[in-house]
Each structure stands twice: as structure tokens, then as C-alpha cells.
Amino acid sequence: MLNVDLHSHSNVSDGVLSPAAVAKYARKAGVDVWGLTDHDEVGGIALGRAAAQEAGLGFVAGVEISITWANQTVHIVGLRIDESNPVLLAGLHATRSGRDARGREISAQLATAGYPGAYEGALKYVGNPDLMSRTHFARYLIECGAASNISEVFRKFLSEGKPGYVPHRWASLTEAVGWIRAAGGVAVVAHPGRYQFSPVAEGALFDEFKQLGGSAIEVVTGSHTPDQYPVYAELARRYGFLASRGTDFHAPGESRAEFALLPPLPSNLTPVWHDWF
Questions:
Q1: What are phi and psi of 20, to 5 degrees?
Q2: Residue 169's pLDDT is what?
Q3: pTM of the model
Q4: Which pick of 70, 190, 217, 251 has the fewest CB atoms within 10 Å?
């Protein structure tokens, strides 16, 4: 059985390692096919593809697009995309454009909470100035001693209702799925168990996603707890979705699941990659 991981990040977005280093790290951990899915950015794909080829690793070009749906941020992964597609590139550029202003507002709120200089502090961790994210602020707050890990930072500072939370209106679901399909890609709902939707709202999201041409949901992911794997396996079957799998890797020791530790998909699902290789 192939070890396929279709969700990871490099320092082109909010990861720590370069695309080449992520490829090597994944290969060393036993991954056979690796997907690079940086946030709202495809600038690392050429480097990732070259490094994967050198390491004898199958490669899937991807992206993770931030959208706003029902006033919450949801992530849609695009797999097997043509990263040079002009429709996709224009959409991603528009999505990235509001990140700097949001980062400055986060910094202002954290200063009020007793942590001045957060914008400059977060910037030290940013590989791509167009893609400052909450994760970069989280790393700075850990450096300051405000928390001991990423999850604690988000819980105390960067989630809704906490100092440092600044809402942002991203692309729509229609736009994101349209960009992915224009680029020849397959649209996947990333880590659906992470969103705070009621069952009714989640069902509405899945219905709309399917109507727009979405194909899959992530079932086994580092952003799900093990007890959520069977829940989303059943939902994939119920809605007729293909199933995807990926660690949501950001950095060694920082992500919830390392490449070598993520379990396989349940055998009664159809993997999103079933006819790719």
C-alpha cells in the first residue's frame, strides 16, 4: 500500500522548512507520494517537484485556499493543479492581498494585551512576506513565553473572542472551487472536523461543495483526532466523496502528526488518488 500524504506546508507559506527540505523529510519518514499544499500560494511547487524527483518521491502539486463560509474560515485544498493557470494565480493573488493589513491589526491587539512588537516578531518567522499568518504570530508568542505550543497560543490569543483574533473575509467557496477546477485540479475540503459547525451547517457545506464540483474530503489528517477518522469516513461514504489523507505538516515536532505516524485511510473508502498512479 502506498503511503500517500497530500497536505503539507513549506516556508513559502507558514511552514518552517523549504520545499526541498519537506520533500526529504517526508521521504525519510517513508512517504511514497507527497503533496505540497501551501496556503494561497504556489511559489514552492517547482522546487518541491524537483526535490521529490531527486528523492524518488511521487509528487502532487497542490494549494490550500482560505475561504469564508457561514462567517467562518474554511480551507479548500486543490490537488493536481496546473500552478501556472492564470485564473488560479489571479485568485490566489487577490486572496493574499489582505494579509498584511490583518497582520498589523493582530499586532496592535497583542500590544494592548501586553505583547508589543508582535508584527516585527512574527516577521522573523515569515518566509514569504505576502503570507504572514496567525501561525507566524503563534511562533513569536511562544518565543516570548506567552505559551508553550501552537495549540495553546491559538486557544489563548488567536481564536475568536481572544486578544489577537482578527476576522478576515477570504474568497467564497464558489470562487475557490472554480479556481481549482480551472487549473485542472481536484477540490478537497481540508480537515472538516476542525470547524465549529453544527451537523446541519456541515451538511449544507458538503451539499454546496458537491454541487460546485468538489470531489473529496480529508478523512485521516493530522488536524483530526483519531476518534474523528471514522466519523468523516462515514460522511465521505454518505455524500459520495473520495477520501484524502495528509498530515497538515508544518514543522518537525510542531504538527499534530508526523509523516511516519499518520494511519492509513480506512479500507472501505475510495482514495482521491485511486486512479492517479
A1: -65, -40
A2: 75
A3: 0.84
A4: 70
